[in-house]
């Protein structure tokens, strides 16, 4: 049950500040739009790694790599064998050691109870203990995406499976049970708030804070008001539209982070005119002013799209360019010539029906700006908001030409899921039956290719095809994390990949 009551938040915030009579910083107070319903690790445990309670075997980093976290190392012995070595110094918060036995217990429990885990592991994969702190993973076919799978918060969260099984389904009994490994352990959880306290024996050292309080407030304005009124330090997921008001309000700050793993993507209906002509699709890519969208329309709160991917990823090809003259030449070549201030063909104006959806209010200014940009080239854009964008896009039904959706192109460092879901012929999210034979072959090869250089080359080639040869999907902007903070946390940057709290999180140095 998601809470929107600011009064409830304020009452709980006052309760949480009762522990402030101590040296050092006070507990960090966060307000978020999502609630944590229970201590059931199979259904709600993924929230715990976001707020410093739980940890994973691997961690997805800003440069697109997956690095050891609870693991000391993860090595590919050959194409079908991986060896994972667990850090020997790690314990659960209840004092039990983290070793091959306890990690395997967590993995096996996830495979038995979690649909995400079941769907992420290839058939026939075997996890076996090969040392006190060593697990070997063997598969029938290469599994190059294992590092990303071990970084995914919804797959193999590490917890004390024996302690979880002991409570049956009395999930409330896990409060205070210390089943995770992170710097903060759960002290209380109810429908309004998660409260955690410092785990003094944390394996990396002493956590910087005495605890963290996370309150569940669905109303974005109420979250910002909580920071403004000093009932919270950090508000997650503020709307971009609030930035101007926040910037004008003393004592609070709208902080944008580094580019993330997705963005606002455009999907073209290649089965219907005008986008059945590849030249018109190529022209659209050159007609979009990506810099204006990110830096003027959204004031830098979104990143300029230079590629389908975050430009910091090693496989990203920065091949987006704004070139109205080249776009006009492509349209002329396709027979869409200017007649006055409109482009026409056989007397009919070049018209694009664009669909957006109300669940993403940022699409209103984005689509309006795109409409204005294309109008300069003589293209008319009609904008329609639909309640279910996927239902409208599936099958390439007549009535839409361009759809915009917020999508992740990388999942915890794994690129295949997006490509399989949106570009392969058998997928339900391949809205119009996009079927480029080379892309199909490359996506299939990527799934079983271990060599990093070859994987990067595959991804680079797919991006080239999607811009220069056979466009279908493209990024209009790249998302950035964003938070609203008070003066105490003015230097805090939004998390990357949902790691909102670490053992080092603390108030900003005095300015």
UniProtKB/TrEMBL annotation:
GO terms for cellular component: ATP-binding cassette (ABC) transporter complex; outer membrane-bounded periplasmic space. This is Nickel-binding periplasmic protein. Keywords: Signal, Transport. Residues 1-21 form the signal peptide. It is found in: Periplasm. It comes from the Bacteria. Residues 67-424 form the Solute-binding protein family domain. Gene3D superfamilies: Dipeptide-binding Protein, Domain 3, Periplasmic binding protein-like II. Belongs to the bacterial solute-binding protein 5 family. GO terms for molecular function: peptide transmembrane transporter activity. It comes from Devosia equisanguinis. It holds the Pfam family SBP_bac_5. GO terms for biological process: peptide transport.
